[in-house]
## 1
Amino acid sequence: MALTPEAKVKKKVKEILDQMGVYHFSPMQNGMGRAGIPDIIGCLDGQFLGIECKAGRGTTTALQERELTRIQNAGGYALVVNEENINQLWEIKEWIQNKT
């Protein structure tokens, strides 16, 4: 079965996080949790990461924006990643490691 464009982005993000040694997981999206939770949750050098994956010109929903803002307000890092900016994950890693 072929991956959707967004699933390809998620797969690549997970591969990059694995290369970085970042602890990460994808929360279950079965309706039992809170709506808008990012696609991938991670921790890098003690810093919380919330990563929302989009394909192409995909945009976040209001609920996703709410959750990303809540993560940032709590001191975590919230990112929206697509095919064009996926390499920013390496920049975020460098930023976090230089900050801590």
## 2
Amino acid sequence: MKHYNYIEKILDWAEERNLLTQGDVFMQLEKSREENSELTKAITKYEKGNAKAYDEIKDAIGDVYVTLVVASDIHGLPVYEIFKNVKFREYDSYHWQHYTDSLRGFDRVLYAACVNEHSPYYDTPGILKNYVNFLNSVAIEYNFTLVECIEYAYNQIKERTGKIVDGTFVKDVK
């Protein structure tokens, strides 16, 4: 299975919860920022000796992917085409702080691209492709596959209920 095979499932999930019609791209990008922060925290905790954070890395990679898919659709981008055309580059291992710093950078650049979508300096589809490629690199660094991370995250959210508040999905608390 390929990572982009989850796009339809993710978008169906989002549509069933009215996120695609009532959602706001900038609020969805804020959700993506939260998930990105969860990922950088999980990496940092794991690298500082908290072995329990390992599964948090897996979940957060998938969560970032899910939020990127939803934000792209809300923004009116051809989600499937963009994500299907991600070309995974050869993987190079780096120090863990490279990953956390780069993740923060991807988040900033994607937000700037959406804010300045008509600027010739921003290629939102290209940024998304690079972001997904980088998520794949992070997954590999921690001995996961990107598909494994997406599946893990999707299985966590697929039965989740909630409502749209201020343009973003807020899950029901059990």
